[in-house]
């Protein structure tokens, strides 16, 4: 009977580690179905690689045009220098980079070395919402409770 209890405990710990991963959509609004309203049938989710990762939605506006980028925060850390320091739930404007492009002598104005092409850039972070990561951690907790109750019932 103790072997069954140990097997159930190992199984529930495996299930809980599989469901506790953060899942984020990864697409850009130039792709079909990834605009303001996301078509989840067209875009798959991605498991974020880091343990304390966050889902990010970036809104970059230029006049009436809006470019939306969805991905994991760890995918952006090496590419973007304007990520806000606060990564908690909610939306906030991009961080100001005062020295970005100061030491470059470039005559091609289309390269946007100062990152001032967009009128505004907003970062939206989420990691607690069901659509950002699903309700996997809650499912794992329920499974652990059910197996614990069953094991106590069968051991006594």
Automatic annotation (TrEMBL):
Where is it located?
Answer: Membrane
UniProt keywords (A-Z) are: Glycoprotein, GPI-anchor, Lipoprotein, Membrane, Signal, Transmembrane, Transmembrane helix
How this chain sits in the membrane, per its record, is: Lipid-anchor; GPI-anchor
Q: Could you confirm whether the keyword Heme appears in this record? A: no
What residue ranges are annotated as transmembrane?
Answer: 136-155
> Signal peptide span per the entry?
1-20
> Main localization of the protein?
membrane
Q: Which biological process, per GO, is one annotated for this protein? A: sleep
A GO CC annotation recorded here is:
side of membrane
In Swiss-Prot or TrEMBL terms, this protein is called: Uncharacterized protein
